[in-house]
Amino acid sequence: MTPFPPSLPGSPGFIRLDGVSKSHGRGAGRVAIFSNLSLEIPRGDFVAIMGPSGSGKSTLLNILAGLDPVDAGRVAIDGCDLSAMGEDARAAWRTTTLGIIFQFYNLMPMLTAAENVELPLLLRPLSGRERRERVATVLDLVGLGGWARHHPREMSGGQRQRVGIARAIVTDPALLLCDEPTGDLDRRSAGEALDILGRLNRELGKTIVMVTHDPAAARSARHVLHLDKGAFSPAGPEVLS
Amino acid sequence: MSSLPRQCFVLTRAALAGLPGRLAISLSMVASIALVVAVLIGFLAVAAGLERTLGAGGSREVAVILGGGAFQEIASAIPPDAARSLQADGTAAGIALDDRGRPLLSREIAVPVEATAADGQRRMVALRGMEAAGPRLRPGSSIRTGRLFAPGMREIVIGETLARDLGLDTGSSDAGPKTGSIRRLRLGPVDWAVVGIVAAQGGAADSEIWGDLDLVRAVFDRQGDIQALRVALDGPDGLAALRAALPGATPSPLDAMTEADLLAGQSAPVTRLVALLGWPITLLMAVGASAGALNTMMSSVSERRIEIATLRVLGFSRLATFTATVAEAMALSLAGAVLGAAVALILDGWSTSTLGADGTALVFRLAVTPAGLMKAGTLALAIGVLGGVLPAVAAARLSPLESLKAGP
Predict the structure, then answer these.
(1) Do B127 and B187 touch, CB atoms closer than 8 A?
(2) Residues spanned by the domain of B36
(3) Nearest chain B CA: its distance from A147 CA (Å)
(4) What ipTM was assigned to the predicted interfaces of this complex?
(5) pLDDT at B362
(6) Is B327 inside a domain boundary?
(7) Which residue of A61, A113, A161, B244 lies most exposed, with the fewest beta carbons within 10 A?
(8) Where is the ABC3 transporter permease C-terminal domain (chain B) (predicted)?
(9) How large is the average pLDDT for residues A68-88?
(10) In a domain, B199, yes or no
């Protein structure tokens, strides 16, 4: 595991943040989250971002997802300048480049596992057969080949998160953003989810950025960044213990 | 299928599948719309029933002559010399002749009288005194059981709806009236023998009692009174000839119109009144139901905000979100419309009564019509649109980021 540098090994970055500033609120209630933040992450890296509550981890993830625009600076992913894109363009970009894994899975309870996984494919010009084949492939990949017709309520937390992972990768995105992916799981389920993320990174070359409070989860990443008081710092042993 | 319909389908399916989780508030929306629909169909059924009763059987070959500028018999008076003059004129006045060469004309009077109904309550009914030609001048009516009253006898025939209401008609063809004066009915100071039941296919005669003109006038001390003259026209030009003959028949102002025009003129104000009362009441209720629908759909959007936000993050469009919310509102409205229509259909054909223009009981059947169902269904869907559009806009404008931050 490599501690934090401003430019991770392998840069020029697949993900680039140049002088990014972000604040919440307006007027006198305006609170700066970070100011002039820069970072480069190379393609194929697996980066965990840790930090205390309120440090801006989730805000950073939302910025990388194109959900939250920056106040200043430039955000570029795989050569696309998100700062210069409008909301609709960012939404379209998300469907091709990005998979998001949520802490609470965010599955549609009335849809089966396969139907949940199929959702991002509905936005693409694929035939029903093509969609079903892709869904079956990714469900097998996360070890849920036999659970395609089950609803989320019939599954454990770990299985639901694996459905969430399958939904995130079904469009074969280059980048996976994970928001506390193990935050709602027991130790064993968390280990299974992290194992899948590790394999996606190692075997399929997915670039993964994971926000987590869990040191054990952070240890599964190649690099760990510690975000505090609006700036990155190397994650020392006390953070990872 | 292109992407947008698929998105709409998935989002609509998600919204509808979540209904059991919002059962109480969704049912309240369905129930309030059902109430509006049932009330509107009910009002329209009353109007249609009255229209059918008042307007049924109107003939263009029979004319009714009223006096004094009246449009109702109760307010009409015809001088006796007018009747005599028209009888003398015959075909010259456009009146058809019977097979014995006599003008087909009936002098008539309608007397409001009290009768005791099967439930023991006393109600006002119309006793019509007419001449022998009177029944023949009502082509839409016929004797269903028994026979016609005999001239000079204290005998009556009763419309079948009124007879049922008064407990005098068992509905069987071998009931009392068929064989004569088995049943008696007290009208005014004397008993009358019920000798027949008249069927008028839902027309006004179903609510009337017919008797001999001279007997009716004698019993109720109305000797010499004539309220209406009913004549058979001798052809398409008969009405014009009749109208031309009226000024020569009497100095009093008289007017003649076909039976069809008379009944249409009588029914129009009544049905218009029912509609005038019904629509404002229903529309007021619809405003309330729309507010309820708005509340329900806002609640739905609030409960589904994580789902909506997640799908928006995945790339689903605002339009799909909007469409799905409107579709949910329309589905609930449709359920309300079906429920309301089902309740209202139970009332179809129910017999009820109201007071006619002469203060007598007018018995009619509620008539749920396809047009009424369509109007109520359209109103229900309009409520759905009104209640669904604002929440749909809210759903489409919902910030995925803020919703996801707020958490489950």
Answers:
(1) yes
(2) 3-55+265-406
(3) 20
(4) 0.85
(5) 67
(6) yes
(7) B244
(8) 282-400
(9) 87
(10) no
